[in-house]
Write a structure and sequence with these properties.
By secondary structure, this protein is α+β, with helices and mostly antiparallel strands. The protein has 6 helices and 6 strands; from the N terminus they run αβββαββαβααα. A 6-stranded mixed sheet has the order 4-5-3-2-1-6.
């Protein structure tokens, strides 16, 4: 394997292909009219020893520098001569940790990544990876039998796809909610089974629960809630009246203080006018 990589790197260097170490450079073109080639950098998907991967080892091809016009269908078609392709997934950046895969939705999907992307191509057999690494190219993305839309045609197609079918959307939402309710019921049943049961080390998991279970509200309880709301509203109106009265009292007190201040100032002026100089 190491010798094969070295030979591939030497071949790319002789042909003038800017290939990173450990990667195989495969040229592609959008169409036959395009003169310049774009390069895809490929290598076998690997993980560190002891680490788990979301992608099957030996059968997954990791691709860098995927252009925006190259969709998952285009990439699967370009690599299909190497062997049957099981799945293709495009991402904005490489996946460093294992994460659970959620089923893709036609309606609820993240915003597409703008610019160049990375791809994980899973073949049905390991020999598909080695065959893809030996490709020379150039590969054509858009052909007469499989044209790829670009420019204004692609914008129109994207807008048409963005118009949702209400009935199909309702079916998918109902399916999702059924799966969610089933999952929550399973988790609740599992929590009840594990409640009070010690684990391997003898610890008992304690969950937070309410002291009293929630009971359905009766007609009498509803009337009591309405009466409580009425009393609260009346008390609020009364408090607002007292606040207005308190505000008026404060204004009258300020007016009396101003009047007393003017009287004291006049009295001081009169005392100063009547004062006589008595050094002895």
């Amino acid at each position: 394997m190491v010798a094969r990589r070295r030979k591939r790197a030497a071949r790319d260097a002789e042909e003038g292909i800017p290939s990173p170490p450990g990667y195989s450079a495969v040229p592609i073109k959008f169409s036959e009219e395009q003169k310049a080639s774009h390069y895809l950098y490929m290598r076998e998907h690997r993980v560190r020893d002891g680490a788990r991967s979301s992608w099957p080892l030996k059968r997954t091809l990791f691709v860098l520098n995927v252009p925006p016009y190259c969709t998952e269908e285009c990439l699967a078609r370009l690599l299909s001569p190497c062997g049957p392709v099981q799945s293709v997934e495009l991402q904005g950046k490489p996946e460093l940790t294992e994460s659970p895969k959620e089923p893709k939705s036609k309606f609820f999907h993240p915003k597409p990544v703008a610019g160049f992307q990375v791809a994980y191509v899973v073949f049905q057999k390991p020999k598909g990876v080695s065959a893809a690494l030996a490709l020379k190219g150039p590969l054509l993305v858009s052909t007469e039998s499989h044209p790829v839309k670009s420019g204004i045609h692609k914008w129109i197609s994207d807008y048409t796809d963005s118009v949702l079918d209400p009935e199909a959307l309702r079916v998918e939402v109902d399916t999702f909610m059924e799966a969610y309710d089933r999952k929550m019921a399973e988790e609740e049943a599992k929590a009840k089974e594990e409640e009070g049961v010690p684990d391997e080390e003898g610890w008992v998991k304690v969950t937070r629960r309410g002291r009293r279970p929630v009971l359905p509200r009766t007609e009498a309880a509803s009337l009591r809630v309405l009466e409580r709301e009425k009393r609260k509203r009346a008390r609020k109106e009364l408090l607002n009246f007292y606040a207005w009265q308190h505000r008026e009292t404060k204004m009258e007190h300020l007016a009396q203080l101003r009047k007393k201040f003017e009287e004291d100032k006049q009295r001081i002026e009169l005392m100063r006018a009547q004062r006589k100089f008595r050094p002895y």
